[in-house]
Design brief:
The complex is a heterodimer of chains A (about 260) and B (about 200). Chain A is an alpha+beta fold and about 260 residues long. Chain A has eight helices and seven strands; from the N terminus they run E-E-H-E-E-E-E-E-H-H-H-H-H-H-H. In chain A, the strands form two sheets. A five-stranded mixed sheet of chain A has the order 2-1-5-3-4. A two-stranded antiparallel ribbon of chain A has the order 6-7. In chain A, strand 6 and strand 7 form a beta hairpin. By secondary structure, chain B is mostly helical. In chain B, about 80% of the residues lie in helices and about 0% in strands. The longest helix of chain B has about 35 residues. Chain B is globular, with a radius of gyration of 18 Å. Classes of the chains: A alpha+beta (about 260), B mainly alpha (about 200). Chains A and B meet through helix 7 and helix 8 of A and helix 1, helix 4, helix 5 and helix 7 of B.
């Protein structure tokens, strides 16, 4: 039984604090069957020793649901931004290279601050307002075909992968990115949500809004949920054309 | 509109690229193609344009002002992007990068081209005719400079036409966008052929 233990090699881009310089550290950990990137990171956390045999600090990352619905564990794995929970070691080329999504401010190691996405969702009012002082009763029904379509858009988990891949989301621009745009389309299509369509459209055409899209269409290619982001953007472009014409030439009220 | 300035500028930039600049470009390439029918045919066409009523006004409204806005705002757009086509090598992402590169190349080409022809005419009274172009294009360097300039301009127009249709919400579905890709490839091939054929006709005198 002198068989050599199979191992996994990982090269991780680390950063000790938001302002410190990033550096690479290599790890070699024992192989187990059916590992994902998170279980590999857990192994490093259990025994924080790098490939040179030196004791080091455990690698920091974020995670939540472990089933690709929360979006918290997104990172750049072998050059592609994706969720580390659903990235299986057996399907990755080694050494596995892990890096934080640098479109966002890095907190530490692989953990990034995605606040800007949540701020954008607030900016474009990506919700259906129903709270009030009395029960306003059930809303109108939605056609089943439309519900199924809207469900696809609702799969967005604000993971940030589309922003990471977008060439127009960067430090020189204030473009809010594809994810919040598609949410505007989702909530504008909702029977009750559509009552606030104008407010969302006004926010969408503000600074950093819809016009920031440069049609590179990377977002739709990388979205882990397969959300038709570029179709949403084009549909909003159509809506924005009529919206801005109505605002300029139209009457004093339009929704 | 004041509060949505960025949206307004961006839409104006997209619109001006096609109307009037794109239309002017197509007209320009059509008239230039007369050079393949011989010097007289070209000179007749150029004379017709040169003697249009209110020519200077037309030039400013249809060409100079729109191009200046499109160019200045376009440079701003190009340099606020952080291209990543090597990491994400998808077709549209390469088009995104090429659109920005050809925009800059086209700007350099147009500045030189306008200086050599229209401005030379305005300042030194250089006559704009077949011979002028034949002289310029007899130099191999200028010939290739013009080839690169024309191909880059036509690419920028054809690919810009594709994004124009998305930006104004005309092609929304992936299928319509794909068909538009084929249409704009056709536009690119057609006008590249017309441009290069007329350059060769000029160069051969």
């Amino acid at each position: 039984m002198a068989e050599k233990q199979k191992t996994i090699r990982l090269i991780i881009e680390r950063q000790d604090s938001p302002d410190s310089k990033p550096y690479d550290e290599e790890f070699e950990i024992p192989y187990r069957k059916n590992m994902n990137v998170i279980s590999a990171l857990m192994e490093i956390r259990r025994n924080p020793v790098n490939a040179k045999g030196e004791k080091t600090t455990p690698v920091h990352w974020e995670m939540g649901c472990l089933e690709e619905v929360c979006g918290a564990c997104s990172m750049v794995i072998n050059g592609k931004p994706q969720q580390s929970c659903s990235s299986l070691i057996d399907q990755l080329e080694q050494p596995v290279r892990l890096a934080p999504m640098r479109t966002f401010p890095v907190i530490r190691d692989l953990a990034v601050d995605r606040s800007r996405m949540f701020d954008s969702l607030k900016k474009v009012k990506a919700w259906v307002p129903i709270d009030g002082t009395y029960d306003i009763g059930p809303g109108p029904r939605m056609a089943e075909s439309k519900r199924q379509w809207a469900y696809e858009l609702s799969k967005c988990m604000t993971c940030g992968v589309c922003l990471e891949a977008c060439p127009n989301v960067n430090s020189q621009s204030n473009f809010i990115g594809p994810a919040p745009l598609s949410q505007v389309r989702l909530f504008n299509s909702h029977p009750t949500g559509s009552l606030h369509k104008k407010e969302r459209m006004d926010a969408l055409l503000g600074d950093g809004g819809l016009q920031g899209c440069g049609n590179s269409q990377n977002c739709v290619q990388v979205c882990p949920k397969g959300i038709p982001l570029t179709t949403s953007i084009a549909a909003l472009n159509r809506e924005a054309s009529t919206h801005s014409f109505k605002s300029f030439f139209g009457s004093d009220y339009h929704n | 509109m004041a509060e949505n300035r960025e949206f307004f500028y961006r839409r104006l930039h997209s619109l001006l690229g096609v109307i009037p600049i794109g239309i002017f470009l197509m007209q320009h390439l059509f008239v230039n193609h007369l050079s393949t029918y011989g010097p007289e045919a070209f000179n007749k066409g150029a004379d017709f344009l040169a003697n249009l009523p209110f020519r200077l006004g037309l030039e400013f409204v249809v060409i100079y002002i729109p191009i200046l806005f499109h160019a200045i705002y376009g440079v701003y757009i190009a340099f606020t992007a952080k291209p990543n086509s090597v990491r994400y090598g998808y077709f549209r992402n390469w088009m995104f990068l090429l659109q920005r590169i050809t925009g800059i190349v086209t700007l350099i080409f147009i500045v030189w081209h306008v200086w050599e022809t229209r401005l030379a005419n305005a300042i030194y009274g250089t006559e704009i005719n077949f011979d002028l172009m034949a002289t310029i294009l007899s130099s191999p360097f200028m010939f290739w400079f013009y080839i690169v300039g024309v191909v880059s301009t036509v690419f920028h127009f054809a690919n810009g036409l594709w994004s124009f249709f998305v930006t104004w919400g005309i092609t929304v579905s992936p299928r319509s966008q794909k068909i538009m890709t084929y249409v704009t490839v056709g536009v690119f091939l057609l006008f590249t052929y017309m441009g290069i054929a007329s350059l060769i006709a000029f160069a051969q005198g």
